[in-house]
Amino acid sequence: MPTIYTSPARLRFHELAAALLLAAASAVLAAPPLSPALQGALDLAVLDYESGRIDSARLAFDKLARSGMPAAQFNLAVMHLRGEMPKPDLAEAERLLKRAADGGFVTAQFMLGQALETGQLGKRDLAQALRWYELAAVNGSVEAQVELATAYYLGRGKPKDASQAVRWYREAAKSGDVGAQYLLASLYEQGDGVERDLRLARYWYDIAAKNGDDAAPGKLIEVDAKLTAKPA
């Protein structure tokens, strides 16, 4: 059985596909929740998968996917990527991911962004990758928010825009991404894309430090010294 991983964090695409938890709930959908009957059918299919009844799970996911359920489409795509289908097919995985993404499945939107950025499905298309990242970011994917912020900050596939980078790092930081918390603090410290504000820089460095960022404690000392030396 593959390792079941409940939080993909910022894994690269091939790691994400190998470790993703198969979707059993609608929490990752930017769409209306499933009916109790459909949710129950999906839960049973996931239970089959987690119990090693791969063929039974595949048939159930296939039936639900054909009915238009994005979660089932996503799960079938992941099974193709994991080599758990009778004839694993990257093109079919991409088709299913796109159907799930178009249906509002946020994790599929993020995965498509990674796949198109890295070429893991056979082609690389940064413009389309950023389109999927942006959609996933708007729909609440923290990982996509970080990728989008970085694209704006570096001018990678989008015009460089530090203020948009601040916007999306802030969204990810508020959701608990430690790297985004540190980067947001740095942008406030430097006044890059936002008005310089050492107090807000200290606030975010402090949060990043409490969440385990190695560099943040040292930055706290530096910012405290600046705040003591003169008003922000």
Describe this structure in words.
The chain is mainly alpha-helical and 232 residues long. It folds into 2 domains: 1-124, Serine Threonine Protein Phosphatase 5, Tetratricopeptide repeat (Alpha Horseshoe); 142-232, Tetratricopeptide repeat domain (Serine Threonine Protein Phosphatase 5, Tetratricopeptide repeat, Alpha Horseshoe), CATH 1.25.40. The protein is built from 12 helices and no strands. It has helices spanning 13-19, 36-50, 54-66, 70-81, 90-102, 106-118, 126-138, 142-154, 162-174, 178-190, 198-210, 216-229. The termini are far apart. The model is unreliable at 1-11 (pLDDT under 50).
| CATH topology (fold) name of the largest domain | Serine Threonine Protein Phosphatase 5, Tetratricopeptide repeat
CATH architecture descriptor of the largest domain: Alpha Horseshoe
The percent range for helix content is: 55-70%
CATH class of the largest domain: Mainly Alpha
| Largest β-sheet summary | none
Order of helices and strands: HHHHHHHHHHHH
What Rg is obtained from the alpha carbons, in whole angstroms? 20 Å
Number of domains: 2
Q: Termini distance? A: 55 Å
On the 0 to 100 scale, the average pLDDT is 87
Please report the total strand number as a whole number: 0
Count the helices. How many?
A: 12
Structural class: mainly alpha
Q: Flag low-confidence runs.
A: 1-11
Global morphology: elongated
Please report which band the strand proportion falls in: under 5%, 5-15%, 15-25%, 25-35%, 35-45% or over 45%. under 5%
